[in-house]
Design brief:
Length: 371
């Protein structure tokens, strides 16, 4: 049973799906210097609006765009929901801490599963509702869970994705203390890369059986071939260089998709622009794939949206399959690694793509996509 993608919604510091895609193909970035919190210094950040966005607003905007794109509307009582987030309503919690009262109103609306619950309520579904949380691997985990709901026959259609609003004082202070934040911008795989830049946003997808999509003559962006999910639990933040846990996730995705490394035409890398992650990922790719495979990370344009980054990368991979353009590694000027890094938009038809996400705690998620 094939699982296809018939609708997408995306929100980033560059706008919604089409504006973001268009600007990335032009090599533009939405990252800007921001002074948001008096107790913290200036940082380059990827903001959707002038101020940090709340996760409920991002969720509602994404869902609306996704349904319009898929030509669907509520109620959708038999549609599954899998919406993840690594930070959830942390911004709300940080605000609640400042309230000088014992009775905090509406606190139940700030639990980690809130985006999934809000989505389920908006489409009025009685089907399964899941809310995975797997650090930066969350977005692909959500797509994998949605794929499984369809493949196991529990649903014919699922809305899956991930949402993140991570720009808060605590998150910024934590990453700064780790020494992971860039000072000037995000330059994945570049010799001068400094670290990550936080961004807001997310992506949602309508997944459905190929039979259901054909019956309503839906537009199809591509097919989910398979996924790989592993966890090495090596370190709270540093990637594992040896023993192959990330490699196993790639191999799982290839096997489930009935593909070989030579079949992959494009990889959307995790590419956070940190020294360790980019080096580890470059070594991983060189070990498994032929040197000709095209590679880019779009975090130089959108920032790192943490748990939503894999969903956003999947959206760009599907756009590449659908339109025949490979997005550039925005910010790359002097690549450090012997890889086919895309410095400028490349017009080339591909049949298969992969998207990688590697999260804190050694969580590895890979998804394979096909025309």
């Amino acid at each position: 049973m094939d699982v296809v993608v018939t609708g997408m919604g995306l929100l980033s510091c560059l706008g919604s799906l089409q504006p973001t895609w268009s600007k990335i193909l032009q090599g533009k970035s939405g990252i800007r210097f921001q002074t948001l919190f008096s107790e913290l210094p200036v940082f380059p950040l990827g903001l959707i609006d002038a101020k940090p966005s709340k996760i409920d607003r991002i969720t509602a905007r994404l869902l609306s765009d996704t349904l319009v794109d898929a030509q669907l509307q509520a109620p959708m009582s038999d549609c599954g929901v899998v919406i993840g987030s690594s930070r959830g309503c942390q911004a709300n919690w940080e605000e609640l801490v400042t309230l000088k009262q014992n009775n905090i109103p509406h606190w139940l609306d700030t639990l980690p599963h809130q985006s999934a619950i809000a989505t389920a309520k908006l489409i009025q579904t009685t089907a399964p509702v899941l809310a995975p949380m797997a650090a930066c691997a969350t977005g692909i985990w959500a797509l994998a869970r949605g794929y499984e709901l369809i493949r196991t026959g529990r649903c014919d259609r699922v809305i899956a994705g991930a949402v993140e609003s991570p720009i808060t004082p605590l998150t910024l202070a934590a990453f700064e203390r780790m020494g992971a934040l860039a000072k000037t911008g995000c330059y994945p795989f570049d010799r001068e890369r400094q670290g990550l830049v936080l961004g807001e946003g997310g992506a949602m997808f309508v997944l459905e059986t190929a039979k259901l999509a054909a019956s309503r003559r839906a537009k199809v962006y591509g097919k989910i071939g398979g996924f790989g999910l592993t966890c090495d639990a090596h370190h709270i933040s540093a990637p594992q260089i040896s023993n192959g846990s990330a490699a196993k996730a790639i191999q799982q995705a290839l096997k489930r998709s009935d593909l070989e490394p030579k079949d992959i035409g494009y990889i959307h890398a995790h590419g956070t622009s940190t020294v360790l992650n980019d080096r580890h990922e470059a070594e991983l790719i060189k070990h498994i794939f032929p040197q000709r495979v095209a590679i880019s990370s779009t975090k130089g344009a959108t920032g790192h949206t943490l748990g939503a980054s894999g969903a956003i990368g999947t959206a760009f991979s599907l756009m590449a399959l659908h339109q025949g353009y490979l997005p550039p590694c925005v910010g790359l000027s002097n690549g450090e690694f012997d890889l086919d890094l895309i410095a400028q938009t490349r017009e080339v038809g591909i049949n298969n793509a992969m998207c990688f996400s590697f999260g804190f705690g050694g969580q590895n998620a890979v998804i394979a996509l096909s025309k």
